[in-house]
Specification:
This is Acyl-CoA synthetase. Keywords: Fatty acid metabolism, Ligase, Lipid metabolism. Among the domains are: 259 residues, ANL, N-terminal domain (Rossmann fold); 97 residues, ANL, C-terminal domain (GMP Synthetase, Chain A, domain 3, 2-Layer Sandwich), CATH 3.30.300. 51% of the residues are buried. α1 packs across α2, α1 packs parallel to α10 and α2 crosses α3. It is α/β, with parallel strands linked by helices and 540 residues long. It has a nine-stranded mixed sheet, sandwiched between helices. 31% of the residues lie in helices and 25% in strands.
Length: 540
């Protein structure tokens, strides 16, 4: 029998529109045109101007022949241009590819080729590495250079003048451009690349629906009222800034751009602009606390991911006036989708117990339908005993579409109808999960994912290295840093400094091992390296 509630009640344009976060900006610009959307140094941009500039960018991209399914790459710092790209690029129907500004040319070139970039918008500071990448890449995207007035240097000025200027490019656009809604909310809005833990980086494709839901999820998770002020201490290239570029438009909030994460500018912004929220890795907390002891007049919410911060850091942040909340997620779930929601009764617990509770990753975001810890072999949930290890798995509308042009990896990631994170955790009796290990040997340093395999591959290319193994070493400043164990080839000798210099030549600086130990590396009878023994050696 047909369901009577589905008879004659079909979807039509009047009652069904695809979800997209782009509408947040249009709504706020219409209702609060003069509200401050962006602050960058002396520059203040209203919501009407933000909306107009985003449409101007979209119209110019359309004039370049870009449309649905085309890729625009952005190698930009936390600047107004990066915020405009989060709207203007998808408003043209295109897909935004945000590039980690700390990457080396070879990896950038791979991403440009794999994403089939048609346009590349580059901050002048990163022009040199961008040009090196384009020498390697097979694609030839139109290069547009953003000259940030807050970057006070003449470096690369000569080279920059050879390419279209971003401001001039936008100025030629149509501020009343009729931007494109997605045909379907399942359409891609962005592509973000993983760190390449098992080979080349994988392109994580996110859709408009997921970006819309996670952006609104941030409002609930961060308890953000209208007119909140968000300080950009989190890189916008990292999982699209955890979707906060879209979140702030939903609440008529103000973006305070910060080109470099430094102690003095952070405190200046906190006081001058009355910042209410900011995010970052534990290293950002260390930077905040590194100078003269200061105390905020009002509480400021700080959201951190990666390795749990030390108890001392949490205590110092609280004394300074910050309320710290621990998050967890991956690029495949639009950034953080798990939050350590705090219970009022925990406020009365001793400091050491509070620190243990804060170290847990927590429970699912509101827009995430399911989160659990499974035994991968059986796909059955592990007992909630705080001891039994399993793999963290996600299911819901804030899980990626899949990996770009990689159906095998996509099928493997979604096996059994769940997204397999590759992270190992326990589940506590109250349902909160806590990470214990990473099955892919990821090292999270300063909020950035580093592949131990990539470092090992570089070490193996040195003629003096016979065996190499890299693990995560706890570090108070960075959370974790790479620690390399090396066995030298017969008759060969090499120093720690020489190996670090070798790695520096072949990878981004933040991936270079901070420590190198020359020792026999433990193996199983079949020759497999026993990394758990190496991890035990670097435990504090």
């Amino acid at each position: 029998m047909a369901n009577p509630y589905n008879t004659g009640l079909d979807r039509n344009p009047a009652n069904y529109q695809p979800l997209t976060p782009l509408g947040f900006l249009a709504r706020t610009a219409a209702n609060y045109p003069n509200a401050t959307a962006i602050i960058h140094g002396e520059l203040k941009i209203s919501y009407q101007a933000f909306y107009n500039r985003s449409r101007q960018l979209a119209s110019q991209l359309a004039k370049q022949g870009l449309g649905r399914g085309d890729t625009v790459s952005a190698l930009l710092a936390n600047t107004p241009a990066m915020l405009e790209c989060h709207y203007g690029v998808p408003m043209a129907g295109a897909v935004l590819h945000s590039i980690n500004t700390r990457l080396e040319a070879a990896t950038i070139a791979y991403q440009l080729d794999h994403a089939e970039a048609k346009v590349m918008i580059v901050d002048q500071e990163f022009l040199s590495v961008a040009l090196d990448a384009l020498q390697i890449a097979t694609v030839s995207p139109t290069l547009i250079v953003y000259r940030d007035p807050e970057w006070a240097t003449s470096s690369e000025e000569g080279a920059a003048t050879q390419y279209p200027d971003y401001e001039a490019f936008v100025a030629q656009g149509d501020p009343s451009f009729s931007w494109l809604m997605p045909d379907d909310e399942w359409d891609a809005i962005s592509i973000n690349y993983t760190s390449g833990t098992t080979g080349n980086p994988k392109g994580v494709v996110c859709h408009h629906r997921g970006a819309y839901l996670l952006a609104l999820g941030n409002v609930f998770t961060a308890d953000m009222p209208k007119y909140s002020v968000y300080l950009w201490t989190l890189p916008m290239f990292h999982c699209n800034g955890w979707c906060f570029p879209w979140t702030m438009s939903a609440i008529c909030g103000t973006h305070v751009c910060l080109r470099q994460v430094r102690e003095v500018p952070i405190w200046q912004a906190l006081h001058e602009h009355k910042v209410t929220h900011l995010c970052g890795a534990p290293i950002v907390m260390d930077i905040i606390l590194s100078g003269t002891h200061r105390v905020l007049p009002d509480k400021v919410a700080f959201f951190t991911a990666a390795a749990p911060p030390p108890e001392r850091t949490l205590a110092n942040m609280q004394q300074a006036g910050f309320e710290v909340t621990h998050l967890y997620g991956l690029a495949e779930v639009y950034g953080p989708a798990v939050v350590n929601e705090w219970h009022r009764e925990w406020d009365d617990l001793p400091g050491d117990q509070q620190a243990r509770l804060k170290a847990r990753q927590g429970v699912r975001y509101l827009p995430l339908e399911n989160l659990d810890v499974f035994a991968p072999a059986t796909m059955m949930p592990v007992p909630a005993d705080g001891k039994t290890l399993g793999e963290v798995m996600f299911r819901g509308n804030v899980v990626m579409k899949g990996y770009f042009k990689n159906p095998d990896a996509t099928a493997l990631a979604f096996e059994g109808g769940w997204f397999h994170s590759g992270d190992l955790a326990v589940k506590h009796p109250d349902g909160y999960i806590q990470l214990k290990d990473r099955s892919k040997d990821i090292i999270i340093s300063g909020g950035e994912n580093i592949s131990s395999i990539e470092i090992e591959d570089v070490l193996y290319k040195h003629t003096a290295v016979a065996v190499a193994a890299v693990v995560a070493c706890p570090d108070e400043k960075w959370g974790e840093v790479p620690y390399a164990f090396v066995e030298c080839a017969d008759g060969q000798n090499v120093s720690e400094d020489e190996l670090k210099a070798w790695c520096s030549q072949h990878m981004a600086g933040f991936k270079v091992p901070k420590h190198v130990a020359f020792t026999a590396i433990p193996r199983t009878p079949t020759g497999k390296i026993q990394k758990f023994q190496l991890r035990n050696k670097v435990k504090p």
